[in-house]
Amino acid sequence: MPTPSPGLRHSLGWGGLLVLGIANILGAGVYVMTGTAAARFAGPAVTVSFAIAGAACLLVAFCYAELASCMPESGSAYTYCRRALGGGPAWALGWLLFLEYSVAASLLAVGFAGYLGSLLGDFGIGFPASLSMPLIHSQVVEGRHVLSLGAGCNVVAALAVLCAGGIAALGMSRYALVSTLLVVLKVAVLVGFIVVGGSAVDPANWQPFVPPNEGGFTYGWEGVARGASLLFFAFLGFETVSTAAAETRMPQRDVPVGILGALAVCTTLYVLSGFVLTGLVPFRELGVPDPIAIAVDRIGYPGIALVIKIGALAGLASVLLANAFGHSRICYAMSRDGYLPALFCRVHETRNSLWHGNLLLAGIAAVSAALLPVSVMADLISFGVAFMFAMVAVSLIHMRNTRPDLERRFRVPFGGVRIRGFWIGYVPVAAIVTSFVMTLPVALDILDQARRGDWLAVGLLGVYALLGTSIYLFFGKPRARRLSILNHEEAVSYARTH
Questions:
Q1: Which residues lie in coiled coils (predicted)?
Q2: Distance of CA 467 to CAs 22, 333, 472, Å?
Q3: Which domains does the chain have, with CATH numbers?
């Protein structure tokens, strides 16, 4: 039976962290969102959008690396914010992270369902469309976004999320084995797609490289910027590395290596994949959940197409697993501090897994996967990621000034300035500015959608914010206050049993 235990065991090295980072980064960004960003916003210049998003994330990755080196604990951005800014801001960020990981899992599962349907179709096997389509649809009718209800729900996507949560609940050893195998497979297949697809591209598909603006954020350099803000989600995975700090043997050294190494590898593969994808298929045809499946069908080699589709499934499956890992660790930290119920920080005695938390979180993500359309989920994720990154940079500046005594094996590069003794780093300031710049196109587009009649994204954010405020005021804050008067051992025991 799952019972409280002293904590999660230290079982990861830098190699395991690198695999975890690549597992969680390299997935929906290339297999799902590249097509959406190219078709709706950037055209062939989606490669520029990827480069911009990757450079922006590098600034934030430096901040994560330093904070992880001086605070090697579970919880990642939530923990850093709590140590630096206190309980209120930390709850707001943690609640937003809860949304981001839940919706990210849903989006990944929708892509998984699309690729699975394409693969089975190659063998003449099909399942009813009603089992792989969301209940809620958002489509443009005479220039207005209109919501409608479909005839079914995405059962396939929901089952994919539940399976990932179940595997993560089995324990670190089983999770690590499955994740490593999937990462090796998906990297090999993606490199194969770049090499084979690169020999079959039609350069005419890259013209014009930056399509003329058609109003708003549809194409043009405005669209490139909007595409970059959307593709922020593609790099969310590097943050998952820092959630594993408490399970790492040498976190001060290995976590920065895992974060920066995974980001460098995945940015390179994203840019190259974007070139090949838009070279194989006219960009206006890529607005589907499985763009690479469409691209490989254009290559004309059925055997290669089959292998690449299997690799795409492996890629999305590995990200689903890594997402389940990171989500449960953030909830573990929030529960340990009193802001979430006790079941989220109960560690299984023999499996060394967050058994209850993994299964409950998978159930929540499965519901949104079955109900919501891809476009809405992507906007919710991108909006939250930018806010999270800005808060991490603010936390770094605060910790440099209030806790200069902490040992820092890694420091953000390029230094900073002191204004009346207060240190302000160039990198964290650039990360804050970049995060808000990335958020602006998403926020403006969401408001524009609401103006045209599509209130789904605004409504979901509003309801979620109201729910989070209520939980904090009436449950989390009182419980955290009770824990704060206990010593560490008493607090941990209380958090796991109340």
A1: none
A2: 33, 20, 9
A3: 14-497 (1.20.1740.10)
